[in-house]
Amino acid sequence: MTAMLVLDILLVLSLLSLATAALATNDARRSVILFMAFGLVLALAWGRLLAPDVALAEAAIGAGLSGALLLTAVRDQAHRALRSSRKPVHERGRANLRVTLEWTVTLLCIALAGLLAWALAQAFDRAPKDTLAQAVSANLAISGVSNPVTAVLLNFRAYDTLLELAVLLTAALGIFALGPARPGHRAAGPVFDGLARWLVPALILTAGYLLWVGAHAPGGAFQAGATLAAAAVVLRLAGRRSVGLPTGHTLHVAMVAGVSMFLAVGLGLLVLGRPFLGYPPAWAGGLILLIETAAMLAIAATLVLAFFGGRPTPAPGVAEKTS
Amino acid sequence: MIEVMASLLTVSGVGFYLAGSIGLLRLPDLYSRLHALTKADNLGLGLLIAGLALHTQDLLIALKLVLIWLAVLAASAASAHLIAQHARRRETQS
Amino acid sequence: MPELLAVSALGLMLSLFLGLLRVLRGPVAGDRLLAMQLIGSTGVGLLLLLSLLLDQTALIDVALVLALLAAVAAAAFTGQELETRDD
Fold first, then answer.
1. Residue C87, in any domain of the structure
2. Could you state, in order of their start, the residue ranges of all structural domains in chain A?
3. Which residues touch C64 (CB under 8 Å, ≥6 apart)?
């Protein structure tokens, strides 16, 4: 299989050159495009490495959504720089500081990468490589799902996922602290409008599909949430005022949905005399789907809030909602 | 027979892809590159998918492949238009 | 047939690599976006080939997500400017 070997070499070369180029450029917009290309090739690399779960997450988040998020951030910064035309006084001192900072961060990153590589090599040396994988497949039957990744994320290591959702909730609160959301986009032309008309339903449908399929194949709440958020991003870019994100109390409920559903299930099981988040095997499948649905809503709400860049304000003319 | 047809379709799909990327590299300006790319990769993916669908011989998977092709077709047509519009707006501004 | 699929996958990877050169070279944002479009649909094709080659049906779903999200990137980049704030 020399063809596959050459393919792998080309993949690695592409990743390295894209990463270098994305970091080396001074133009933030160019950097974002290069980063998006990097995410795309990275998704291919995960696919090649037989990790379709990670490939799916990378395709949904790395190649599509994070590009849109980074771009709005870059644009916002350019706006702000334009508005405050005041030149910094200590231009030279700042430049020096910046170079020092950049080099410090670079050297720290290199040191950290070296440390991680060393630790990984040690770990591979000492233990047989797949004891954990064997443990997972031995217990897969009682996990309620047949996809080992979902079994780990939502059952065996459910604590981890609960805390991840708590991190996302914290991020959403941080976004609220930024103040009111950015103003929306101008109404799009007919071509983009036509695109949004079929793309948004397709994205919503795909999100539901990914959520459902997560029980027995790659998929799950994170990928589904990102896809759902992409639907809202498209609507926002098309200039719609309402993008399906609820307002007021309903928004708050959506934001905490993941954490609170997790806690409700965990505490409920405690009351019934089971360990925290120790699902009875007969119910496990249903409980996991319940938690994943709530988690998908919370993840999507957080990502859309990030795209808004602040607390959504009720539109002055609510009647204008149907544009 | 089906094997041969599937191979033929797959290989010609890859050929269209390669033609598209060479066009993207060689053509002089954005608009002509646009022209080369949008035709080549749509047709390339279409032929490739036709070949793969014949190869799998699983109706559901074949249907999914065709859906993916339709999605790429519609999305790339729209985004090619958006890119061209963007470039033109830039040109008239400066 | 597997050899043929592998060679086809290599051909697509080569095409993707050529597209990357255009992403790196530019010169304007439109060129890079166009090359991203090519890389996106080449990536879709490559994932579909790999799904058959490596016997991983799930990669078809990855290709589906990639196909749907490819347009989002272009839309975000060429998107209409923000409305002016009323302050």
1. no
2. 1-82, 146-315
3. A206, B64, B67, B68, B71
